[in-house]
Specification:
Shape: rod-shaped
CATH architecture of one domain: Orthogonal Bundle
Order of helices and strands: HEHHEHH
CATH class of one domain: Mainly Alpha
InterPro entries: EF-hand-dom_pair, EF_Hand_1_Ca_BS, EF_hand_dom, EH_dom
Number of helices: 5
Keywords: Calcium, Coiled coil
Protein name: Epidermal growth factor receptor substrate 15-like 1
Organism: Tegillarca granosa
Number of strands: 2
Radius of gyration: 52 Å
Length: about 180
């Protein structure tokens, strides 16, 4: 009923928008004006959906019978309590919306950090693979150099033996020459 009455769809109904609904109750304009004033707690000249529901409740109670003034009084007390609860809920909702927005922002920041860390990890992993490949190549070169060193040592040992043999031969020849010259 509220949605049908809210012609401009602003979340409120004005007296003009619900005048015909109120008049259908058969209550006097004074009673209807009193109910309106009870429900329009902020004197905005408009009712939100909760205030509209209370106004319709009060109209029904007044239409029901002579003891409706008791219902009006309790409804007024209840309206105050309900209005306070509504305001508390609105504050809580606003706080939750802020917290949600903050959480979403934090999540986006965290996701960005995660993506950045993933890229950094991928880069480090690629660098590690390159270094491992370079290490393998360096080890192959070192192994080849070790083999060359071993070959050179072998050659050196062979040449040293050869020099020793030659030295012995030279000494033998020198001793022969010396012996021959003496003879």
């Amino acid at each position: 009923m509220f949605k049908k009455a809210d012609l401009d769809m602003d979340g409120f109904v004005s007296g003009q928008e619900i005048r015909n609904i109120f008049l259908q109750s058969g209550l006097s304009n004074a009673v209807l004006a009193h109910i309106w004033n009870l429900c329009d707690t902020k004197s905005m000249g408009k009712l939100n959906s909760e205030q509209f529901a209370l106004a319709m409740y009060l109209v029904q109670q007044k239409v029901k019978g002579p003891y409706s003034h008791v219902a009006d009084f309790s409804a007024i007390k209840e309206l105050g309590s309900i209005s306070k609860d509504i305001e508390d809920i609105k504050r809580q909702k606003l706080q939750l919306e802020r917290e949600k927005a903050q959480s979403e922002a934090d999540i986006k920041i965290s996701q960005g950090e995660v993506q950045s860390l993933q890229k950094e990890l991928e880069s480090i992993t690629a660098t590690l693979h390159q270094l491992e490949n370079q290490k393998k190549e360096a080890q192959k070169r070192l192994d080849a150099l070790d083999e060359k060193i071993d070959d050179l040592k072998q050659q050196m040992n062979n040449q040293a033996k050869s020099v020793k043999v030659c030295d012995q031969d030279v000494r033998f020849i020198v001793s022969l020459v010396y012996t021959c010259t003496l003879c």
